[in-house]
Every structure is written in C-alpha cells, then in structure tokens.
Amino acid sequence: MIALRFRKEAEADLRDVVSYYRDVAPEVLPRILDDIHHALRRLQDYPQLGAAVEGRSFRRIVTLRYHFKIAYLIEEPFLTVLGIFRYQDRES
Questions:
Q1: Among residues 28, 27, 43, which one has the least CA distance to residue 84?
Q2: How far apart are CA 52 and CA 92, in angstroms?
Q3: For a tag site, which of 28, 57, 81, 84 has the least CB within 10 Å?
C-alpha cells in the first residue's frame, strides 16, 4: 500500500467540500466523505487505477457514487493528491 500525502490545495479542496455540504446538505456529508475516502483507499492499493491525463504528468479518478474528481501523482513512495473537486466544477 502506497502512502498518501496531500498538497495544500487538495487539503483546501476537501475542507471546501466539507464546508459546502455541511451548509447545504449535512445529512449527505458522511456519505460523500466515505465515497472520497473509499476512492483514496483504492488508489493506495492500485495507484495506476486512475486514468492518465494526456499531455500531463498526473492521473485522475472519479469517485463511484458522488462523482468527485481526484487528481494525483504517483511519486514513490507516495501518492500525492493534487486536488479533489466536484466533477462539474473544473476541468483537469
């Protein structure tokens, strides 16, 4: 299992997700976080799981249930999370 580390931007993205859903749909927040954490655990076990992004050095995966994008780099011995965001919010 590869170790995770988060760029400051990814940490801020996750805080933004929590803040937004705490305000608009607090009952859904635990399921959203579970969806994101499930994807991160899968990436720790299978770092190549995400799709390579053409012309870029990073990969991305979309969470199964709530369709958040997770952009990441494989930098042995770490998997570096670059960003976590709603699928429709921005392109990577």
A1: 43
A2: 11
A3: 57
Domains in the chain, please, with CATH?
3-86 (3.30.2310.20)
State whether residue 90 is helix, strand or coil. Answer: coil
Residue environment code for 47-57, b if the CB has 16+ CB neighbours within 10 A, otherwise e: beebeeeeeee
Residue with tokens 């429709």: 88
CB 15 within 8 A of CB 36: no
* Cross-strand pairs, 4: 79
- Whether 19 shows a pLDDT value over 60: the answer reads yes
